[in-house]
Amino acid sequence: MRPLDFERFGESEMRERAKVMLQRFQSRRTVRHFSKEPLPLDVVREAIQAAGTAPSGAHKQPWHFCLITDPAVKAKIREAAEKEEFENYHGRMNEKWLEDLKPFGTDHVKPHLEEAPALIAVFRQSWSTDLNIPNGRSQHYYVQESVGIACGILLAALHECGIASLTHTPSPMRFLEQVLDRPSNEKAFLLIPIGYPKDGCQVPDIQRKRFEEIATEFHSEGTDNNLKGEKLQEKR
Predict the structure, then answer these.
(1) CA-closest candidate to residue 175, choices 86, 93, 96, 83
(2) pLDDT tens-digit profile of 105-156?
(3) 209 domain-assigned
(4) What pTM was estimated for this model as a whole?
(5) How many domains does the chain have?
């Protein structure tokens, strides 16, 4: 154990930071049209390192990130992904799913997998090698949750650095393990094309749910609830 390194802010600074943070995150959008302009890879590496600070079950850190800029490898990934996506759009997805996707104009063709200057393939590790134990395998815990949190931090870090992204999940994604020659303890979790938006990039005009739609609060009697007070004022 060692002393915690933690910086506490005054409430006024906390509120200002929260306001700025929300404004920044509200501007984050999924991008499917990327400029081919290269990215500063040292910045991307820092964002991946930030993702590696995520909490994980028993601190096993059950993730691995592959950063891909090689055009030949990106082409192989696109070819394999489009094969899976073709099956998705022509049989695997039910009619309701396809109907829900119509406003976004997506289909099985994925040019962004080659146009984006970089791809980040995220893998989850169900176990790791440990020669100091009988079967040579160290068990990992809460793998899905841990890797999901790491991916959330990665997307936020990329956005904070001015890098646009897309979360791509062409299920099944076994092809990623094959193209990138990953070991048997790793399974593909997420594929993230990243880059700068192409000039004139358009995104769907969507609205995010309000706080009241995504959260429920539970307070004890007498708790000073500023949010409740604001709601009452709005009703008046």
Answers:
(1) 83
(2) 999 999 999 999 999 999 999 999 887 888 889 999 999 999 999 999 999 9
(3) no
(4) 0.90
(5) 1
